[in-house]
Amino acid sequence: MPTLLEVDRLRVRFRSLGALRALIAGVRDPFIDAVLDVSLAVAIGEVFALVGESGSGKTTLARSILGLIRPSAGEIRFRGRALTGLSDRALKPFRREIALMAQDPVAGLSPRLTVRALVTEPLRIHGSRGGRDCEAEARRLLALVGLPERLLGAYPHQLSGGQARRVGVARALALDPALIIADEPTAGLDVSVQGEVLNLLASLRDRLSLAYLIVTHNLPVVRHVSDRMAIMYLGRLVELGPTTVILARPAHPYTAALLEAVPQPDPARRRTRLELAGEIPSLRNRPSGCEFHTRCRFALARCRAEPPALRPGADGRSVACHFPLA
After folding, report:
1. What's 55's DSSP letter?
2. Total domains in the fold of the chain
3. What is the CATH number of the domain that holds 92?
4. CB-based contact 231:199 (threshold 8 Å)
5. DSSP codes, 174-207
6. Could you tell me if residue 195 is inside a domain?
7. Residue 262 gets which letter from DSSP?
8. pLDDT score, position 236
9. For the whole model, what pTM was predicted?
10. Residues 37, 35: Cα–Cα separation, whole Å
11. What percent of the chain has pLDDT over 90?
12. Between β-strands 311-312 and 236-242, what pairing exists: parallel, antiparallel or unpaired?
């Protein structure tokens, strides 16, 4: 499939100390790298998952793609057009084609607006193309996500979590986007409702040729819906490739540890657990060599001294590890 989104060697930096405080403390580089040297691509109609613990940089990367955070280096291209460096006005046409689903299904909706106003708000902000009738569009969008028209006059507090999430999906679809960035699409939902939402997203992908960039730490969600996935640690990609390949035989010890942490419904299944020792290091003081070596049970002297590159393998994946497991 043709490439829709490309991220090339992206870097996002945030100031950690004010100029005066940095001068007094003698800190020459008062910045932290939340995203560092990240490259990935999403094809038309593909579901790509971005996975990592809290603080791994995945949400910062997603916000950079949306143009909400300006990257310090690297490039973001959409349909072959560079987005980095564009003004907000120049970005507006692209924001029609890249939609966001917020993490909290209820808090992401304004409590003062009805469902009708919520799902048609993007049309009012960007202009209703082709003279589309907003009332008809509201009914169409609710039907698209499986909600009854009677909910058009409801407010967010009157909706269940599943209904609120479907309203969020309908709102994201209002401008007929090509890519939806979904931040933890099943967060705060019961397990049964999670399955319904994931099935809805899969159905819409097939019907509308949508691509998704799913930001999550929930590996069962990734297993259920994604074609390819990338694992982030301290703002870097440590493993990237087809979801079935990575989940069947993880190559990076961090990926393996994340998989081992997923609860299993069968108590009879015993596995050798790859425990993650300690906490995630501070971005202000990145470890030398492989940045994961402080938590890796397989780390050797080379890991502590030499940073590994993200190298492609024969099975379609790339991994940043001197001694990959697979």
Report:
1. T
2. 1
3. 3.40.50.300
4. no
5. TT--SEEEEESTTTT--HHHHHHHHHHHHHHHHH
6. yes
7. S
8. 96
9. 0.91
10. 7
11. 66
12. unpaired
Q: pLDDT tens digits for 150-178? A: 999 999 999 999 999 999 999 999 999 99
Query: Rounded CA gap, 237 and 310, in Å?
Result: 8
Domain ranges, residue 49? 3-97+177-319
CA angle 290, 263, 63 (to 5 degrees): 55
Q: Which amino acid is residue 196, in one-letter code? A: E
What CA dihedral angle connects 71, 72, 77 and 81, to 10 degrees? 110
**Residue count (the chain):** 326
Contact in structure between 38 and 74 (CB atoms under 8 Å): yes
**Closest CA relative to residue 197, chosen from 223, 151, 162, 152:** 162
Q: How remote is the C-alpha of 150 from its chain's centroid?
A: 33
SS3 32: strand
Taking the CB of residue 273, how many other CB atoms lie within 10 A of it?
A: 10
Helix spans in 105-241 (H): 115-126, 134-144, 161-173, 191-208, 219-225
- What is the Cα 174 distance to its own chain's centre? 20
Q: Is 218 in contact with 137 (CB distance < 8 Å)?
A: no
269-276, Cβ contacts within 8 angstroms, sequence gap of 24 or more: none
Nearest Cα neighbor of 85 from 100, 99, 73, 98 is: 73
Q: What are the beta bridge partners of residue 212?
A: 47, 180
Q: Percent helix, strand, coil in the chain (nearest 5)?
A: 35, 20, 40
List of E strands, 234-304: 236-242
pLDDT tier at 131, thresholds 50, 70, 90: low
The radius of gyration of the chain's CA atoms, rounded to the nearest angstrom, is 21
Residue 21 tokens, joined: 């405080």
Longest dimension (CA), the chain: 65
Cα–Cα dist 218/153, whole Å = 33
Residues 121 and 174: their CA atoms lie apart, in Å, by: 8
CB 316 within 8 A of CB 243: no
Percent with pLDDT over 70 in the chain: 94
Query: What residues does 6 pair with on adjacent strands?
Result: 41, 77
